[in-house]
Every structure is written in C-alpha cells, then in structure tokens.
C-alpha cells in the first residue's frame, strides 16, 4: 500500500466538515469541545474509513481549524442537542451529504480550507 498522500482540498473540506460535526456532537453530549488529541484521532479514523492519506501535520492543522470553526457553526445552526444532530448521519458515523445542513456546513468548511 502506498503511503503517498492523496489529500486534495475537497478531501480536506470533507474531513474538516466531519471534525466540525464531531465537535458539535461533543458539545451536545458533554457541554465541552473535543480535546486536540480526540480531534486528531477522529481525523485518523476518517482517513482510514475513506482510504485517504495525509501527513500528521495536515491532520493537526485540520484539527485546529475544526476547533476554530466549530463555535461559529454552533452559533449559526440550531444543532445543540443529540436529536438535532442525529439526522446529519447515515449508518454509523458517516455524514449524510443529502442533508441540506450537512451541505451548508461542508460549504463553510470548503470556503475555510480555501482561505487557509
């Protein structure tokens, strides 16, 4: 298996979206944002599930971006409870990109990636 990164801006936006929604889930469940190590581990899990590869610096950078972006997403969308967040997912922890809210969050993330 190749270890060459295959991580473009669209993959970055998708991973960032996943991490931001993970932050929202953590806030709804615990009242606290995820720790950096949990964000980095979530990124590793997403990469493995999606067959994507990137270096650790990119994972850490995206984790930091998620931590910065999550509070504004939290303030912009009414996603403060687990029942409000549940429709954003399909089976398991896969985001449902047919959901308009997921698409809106993804667009915010894509714009954020382009500015960074």
**Overall shape:** globular
What is the tally of helical segments? 5
How many E strands? 0
Strand content: under 5%
Mean pLDDT across the residues is 91
Biggest sheet layout: none
Provide the succession of SSEs. Answer: HHHHH
> How many structural units, i.e. domains?
1
N/C terminus separation: 30 Å
Helix content: 55-70%
Low-pLDDT parts are none
Radius of gyration over alpha carbons?
Answer: 13 Å
Can you give keywords for this protein?
116 residues, 0% strand, mainly alpha
Explain what the structure shows:
The protein is mainly alpha-helical and 116 residues long. It has one domain. It is built from five helices and no strands. The longest helix is centred in the N-terminal third of the chain and has 22 residues. The chain is globular.
Sum this structure up briefly:
The chain is mostly helical and 116 residues long. The chain is 67% helix and 0% strand. The chain has one domain (9-115).
How do the helices and strands line up, and which of them pair or pack?
Layout: H1 9-30, H2 36-50, H3 56-76, H4 82-85, H5 100-115
Helix pairs in contact: 1-2, 1-3, 1-5, 2-3
